[in-house]
Predict the structure.
Amino acid sequence: MQNWYFNSRGYRIFTVFNYIILFIAAALCLIPLINVFAVSLSSPSRATAGEVWLWPKDFTMEAYKYVMRSSDFWRAMFVSIERVVLGTAIGMLMTIMCAYPLSKKSDVFRARKIYVWIFFFTMLFNGGLVPTFLVVYYTGLLDSIWALVIPGAVNTWHIILMLNFFRSMPVELEEAAFLDGASHWNILWRIFVPLSKPAIATITLFTIVGHWNAWFDGLLYMRKSYNYPLQTYLQSLLTIDISKFLTQEQQNIVAKLSPKTIRSAQVFIAAFPVLCVYPFLQKYFTKGLVLGSVKG
Amino acid sequence: MAEGFAVTKKHRYNKGNSLRMDTRSLHLMLVPALIILFIYSYLPMIGIVIAFQDFNVGLGIRAFWQSDWVGLAHFRRLFSSPDFTRAFTNTLVIAVGKIILNFITPIIVALLVNEVRVNWLKRGIQTIIYFPHFLSWVIMAGVIKEVLAPDGMLNGMLGALFGIEPIFWLGDKRLFPWLMIVTETLKEFGFGTVIYLAAITGIDPTLYEAAIVDGANRFKQTIHVTIPGMLPIIVLSLVLSLGSILNAGFDQIFNLYSVPVYETGDIIDTLVYRISMQGGQYDFGTAVGLFKSVISMFLISLSYWLAYKFANYEVF
């Protein structure tokens, strides 16, 4: 009886249309990526003729071999990995160490209100592009990996996610530990952190993806292009004519390949880590989202 | 002291007191972050003074206090600059378009996904549509440029199916704002959909049972139970989007625009970048950026205030 409406004719017709619409929606998200992948595996002549849609034509791995041979590509990849490791370690340390005191009630930690305003105000207003650039310049970080790590190390959104999780911990835990002589420092690292693994995993994931995807700070703070992280390197290749950067020797290879297939291969390689990790960790991505938006 | 930890409420408060005595370490934990915030968030706010100066880069760091003061000269120049007026209008058009389309699409898609009763399919669709959110705009722009290129897939398909001549999509200034709105929504609608689906999961199942008893069919259940259940989140996301009325999406537009589409595609953020980083006019660029930041600050504050008032939403 409960599901009578699912068998009605109207609902059945709706279901058919519903599947068609959702199929199109999912296709719109996937097809462009599949197309780029197919182009990257096709022969340059077929690719530039616009014949490649969802399946490679005249299958070849040449574009990938070309990218893999490029030392610039590997250097950029290394910078990216370096920033992800350093940025995540420092960023998570900041997130956890800020979330703990700010998760305390105001009657326990009286100064909380002032600190919250200091953090909150950075969400409302910022100095803008040039003043921030000049501060990075005068603190001597230009062309150093720290320019990609330190200025953005304190992420207020992540702190909010974390402190909401800390607040959901039973107060008794903390009180019992305090009775046993534990300091705040011990309570944080011995009790809160081990119990917050799911939240920490989610925020770590967000931080990693954020650092992997960041490109503008690289463009802004790295004057030498060999310091570019992968996304910035890719951005510079996609916006500027590729042929300008190649030596005469490499021109011969390029003649055989079209930049189109090379570009596609580079785009796909840059998306690849996210593509690999995402399906398995999707529940964490969703959890973090829900943690942040549907609270209270 | 030990007997103070019996179970009563009053004693629990005492425990709060003893924890309070150790606040020094709480302050210490915040110190590293406060130093970073002070240097990289608050010093730049002081650096805004250069918007009121004839900033002389040659003076080095002394330029911040030794440059000549010019008052509001940069702002007068800004209001008489056709480039700025154009960028301001484009920003509003593109941002509002994005807010509208990216507001409606996730609600509809969430309602549709909610009607899928095959579980793996439901999860599969969510996984696919949420994915583009995690790609950077550099990658997305690379993909979009490839698909929309004159020799790309879209033109190939249109040619094969309808015999249409290749269109240079991203080079057409009439199409450009629309393409920005559509591609932004394509990248982000999955994100909104997942939020709404989470809200739908949280709806009390007895409400549906009551509706069924009252003879409501699936459509009526959607109107009377599902949508009201989503309403708080709908209101919240609409209110919070107010804060992004001047954010037309720098990452996206910077990676997709070109000189032929500046007329309809140049926005405040891209203009600021070109003026200051490519043109080297630090003072004027800061003034343009400041104009935007100040308006944004009011809009964001207003949106948080409204969200607090109407959706009971507190940031901290």
In short: Confidence is low (pLDDT under 50) at residues 1-16 of chain B. Residues 2-69 of chain B form one domain. Residues 38 and 44 of chain B are 9 Å apart (CA to CA). Chain B has 15 helices and two strands.
